From TrEMBL:
<dbReference type="GO" id="GO:0005730">
    <property type="term" value="C:nucleolus"/>
</dbReference>
<dbReference type="InterPro" id="IPR050590">
    <property type="entry name" value="Exosome_comp_Rrp42_subfam"/>
</dbReference>
<dbReference type="GO" id="GO:0071038">
    <property type="term" value="P:TRAMP-dependent tRNA surveillance pathway"/>
</dbReference>
<keyword id="KW-0271">Exosome</keyword>
<dbReference type="GO" id="GO:0034473">
    <property type="term" value="P:U1 snRNA 3'-end processing"/>
</dbReference>
<dbReference type="GO" id="GO:0000176">
    <property type="term" value="C:nuclear exosome (RNase complex)"/>
</dbReference>
<dbReference type="GO" id="GO:0000177">
    <property type="term" value="C:cytoplasmic exosome (RNase complex)"/>
</dbReference>
<dbReference type="GO" id="GO:0016075">
    <property type="term" value="P:rRNA catabolic process"/>
</dbReference>
<keyword id="KW-0963">Cytoplasm</keyword>
<dbReference type="InterPro" id="IPR036345">
    <property type="entry name" value="ExoRNase_PH_dom2_sf"/>
</dbReference>
<dbReference type="GO" id="GO:0035925">
    <property type="term" value="F:mRNA 3'-UTR AU-rich region binding"/>
</dbReference>
<dbReference type="GO" id="GO:0071035">
    <property type="term" value="P:nuclear polyadenylation-dependent rRNA catabolic process"/>
</dbReference>
<dbReference type="InterPro" id="IPR020568">
    <property type="entry name" value="Ribosomal_Su5_D2-typ_SF"/>
</dbReference>
<dbReference type="GO" id="GO:0071028">
    <property type="term" value="P:nuclear mRNA surveillance"/>
</dbReference>
<dbReference type="InterPro" id="IPR027408">
    <property type="entry name" value="PNPase/RNase_PH_dom_sf"/>
</dbReference>
<dbReference type="GO" id="GO:0034476">
    <property type="term" value="P:U5 snRNA 3'-end processing"/>
</dbReference>
<dbReference type="GO" id="GO:0034475">
    <property type="term" value="P:U4 snRNA 3'-end processing"/>
</dbReference>
Length: 211
């Protein structure tokens, strides 16, 4: 359960771009801890809804860059114009390594500001899951949603579909997994994916109205 959640949410297509602090040096680490206190069935769908709700409220702290400059090396003098005139000999100018050059290091600090920070980038892309419980041995196969534990135990096959609905873009199937001993043909999978997208869209809209 945790593996599916991690592999889906950690996909590069869902990475927020505003977690970076210093390019190729520092970035915020986003941790999401999900705990199931009681399993009344359909735990996968509940986990993805809880994860999306938690990430929707996540804020990235506001930062400001800090630049440090080393003190002037001995033997330097300040010109009248205010610019620093470094006294360098001919050998140092010809060398590619100058120990008296100014060393710089860039860091960041958190300003004391009333705002909690910016919302997590791409939160509209965080997916939801729909579990189709597939029953029956004859064609056409039937499916139902929101199974309780007893129904899950009696169902030979469950199909997990994880959909994302990016704004101004077509829906994306982020993950798909089967649970159980049953098998599906490619045509059956295509039909179930079509039905699952409709269910996921309704779930997506209902969850957005609560956020």
């Amino acid at each position: 359960m945790s593996t599916l959640l991690h592999q889906t949410l950690a996909h590069p297509s869902l990475h927020p771009v505003n977690l970076g602090i210093l390019a190729e040096k520092k970035a915020w680490l986003l941790n999401l801890n999900c705990v199931v206190l009681a399993d009344a069935g359909n735990a996968y769908d509940a986990l993805f809804m809880a994860a999306r709700a938690a990430l929707w409220d996540c804020k990235v702290p506001r930062m400001c860059g800090v630049e440090y400059k080393a003190a002037a090396a001995p033997g330097t003098k300040v010109a009248e114009s205010g610019e620093m005139d470094v006294d360098r000999d001919t050998e140092a100018q010809q060398s590619g390594f100058d120990t008296r050059s100014i060393a710089r290091a860039v860091d960041f600090e958190l300003p004391d500001y009333w705002d909690e920070g910016a919302v997590l980038d791409g939160r509209e892309r965080w997916p939801v899951s729909v579990t189709l419980n597939i029953a029956g041995s004859k064609m056409p196969l039937v499916h139902y949603l929101d199974a309780i534990p007893q129904e899950e135990a009696a169902t030979p096959l469950r199909l997990l579909l994880v959909f994302s609905f990016p704004p101004a873009s077509s829906p994306k199937l982020q993950a798909m997994r089967t649970l159980g001993s049953g098998e599906l043909e490619s045509d059956q999978i295509r039909d179930f994916v079509t039905d699952g997208e409709k269910y996921a869209q309704k779930l997506w809209d209902a969850l957005n109205r609560k956020l």
